[in-house]
Specification:
- This protein has twelve helices and twelve strands.
- The protein starts with a strand and ends in a 9-residue tail after the last helix.
- The protein is elongated, with a radius of gyration of 20 Å.
- It folds into two domains: about 120 residues, 3-Layer(aba) Sandwich (Rossmann fold), CATH 3.40.50.720; about 160 residues, NAD(P)-binding Rossmann-like Domain (Rossmann fold, 3-Layer(aba) Sandwich), CATH 3.40.50.
- The strands form two sheets. A seven-stranded parallel sheet has the order 8-7-6-9-10-11-12, with helices on both faces. A five-stranded parallel sheet has the order 2-1-3-4-5, with helices on both faces.
- It is α/β, with parallel strands linked by helices and about 300 residues long.
- The chain binds 3-phosphoglyceric acid.
- The site of 3-phosphoglyceric acid (3PG) has 11 residues, from loops.
Length: about 300
């Protein structure tokens, strides 16, 4: 059977080699399309039985073009790029690879936070993380890694996640918070790890950001869609002490950069999971999951039912 790996943003070479080895050893055939266009995707998916993608948009049109497609694995955590209802209608199983790239994302949080605290290394005196308050919004795989690293910096850590018991957080030395307003009012840094869903889209805006203490930094390695950009912009205008750092440009990035200069920073492409280690872990896990599904219907991480 044919397994198509289609990624606009390429995996590291070590990950590609390992995916190739994994697919070859299973007796399936691999087609690799890196930095492909939508036309490339529609053409190469025609005879694919399994599909591995990253943040690539997989909608009903792609599925219509893929009559043999049985399984899609998103090599990563967030699957908001895949139309789950369309997949269910097409009888396609969709899975993600939870946890495989979470350390990489968590490390980038601190890479960006330190950079902001040192004024993007412009020579002016900055500030330290030790003793500061960090609020983690969603205590999933990435949030837990962020907490682990924050301990090393000597930060006071709290988290909000309605799906996680307080005891789980407390066992990690993390203070549970139950109101989103308090997450913002009580923390010098708020790090977002919520998925982009109907409930969370545009949910972080003016009212919440304005609650942050003096000098607050909002850190977004989740999805740009969770931010209400107009609201955040208004808050940054009214509060010259606040800063915003995001792994991927907001839609209105140019306006943010023009208005706020070094108070904002955006990666040009989503870089959180873009490490050799994360690519290897997520890529190989995705290949193994596609192979296992095609072989005997293994679907442990299915996200559409
Ligand atoms: C994820 O959801 O796993 C991360 O956002 C990484 O996305 P990427 O594979 O497009 O880098």
């Amino acid at each position: 059977m044919k397994i198509l790996v289609f990624t606009e943003k390429p995996f590291a070479p070590n990950a590609v080699k390992a995916i190739e080895n994994t697919v070859n050893a299973s007796g399936n055939e691999l087609e690799l399309v890196e930095m492909g266009t939508r036309e490339d995707l529609l053409a190469s998916v025609k005879d694919a039985d399994g599909l591995i993608v990253r943040s690539d948009k997989i909608d009903a049109a792609v599925m219509d073009a893929a009559p043999r497609l049985k399984v899609i694995v998103r090599a990563g955590a967030g699957y908001d790029n895949i139309d789950l209802d369309a997949a269910t209608q097409h009888k396609i199983c969709v899975m993600n690879t939870p946890g495989q790239n979470s350390n990489a994302v968590a490390e980038l949080v601190f890479g960006m936070v330190v950079m902001m605290c040192r004024n993007q290394y412009n020579g002016k005196s900055g500030s330290e993380l030790k003793g500061k308050n960090l609020g983690i919004y969603a205590f999933g795989q990435v949030g837990r890694n962020v907490a682990r690293i924050a301990k090393g910096f000597g930060m006071n850590i709290s988290a909000l996640d309605k799906f996680v018991d307080d005891a789980v957080m407390e066992a990690e030395g993390v203070k549970p918070i139950h109101e989103v307003e308090r997450l913002f009012s009580d923390n010098d840094f708020v790090s977002l790890h919520i998925p982009a869903t109907a409930e969370t889209r545009g949910s972080i805006g003016y009212d919440l950001v304005m609650k942050m203490p003096k000098g607050g930094v909002l850190v977004n390695t989740a999805r740009k869609e969770v931010i209400d950009e107009a609201g955040l912009m208004k808050a940054l205008e009214e509060r010259p002490d606040l800063r915003y750092v995001s792994d991927i440009k907001p839609d209105t990035a140019e306006e943010f950069e023009k208005k706020f200069g070094a108070r904002v920073f955006f990666t040009p492409k989503k870089m959180g999971a873009q490490t050799a280690e994360a690519n290897f872990n997520a890529g190989v896990a995705a290949a193994e999951q596609v192979i296992a599904y095609l072989k005997d219907g293994w679907n442990k991480y299915q996200v559409n039912r």
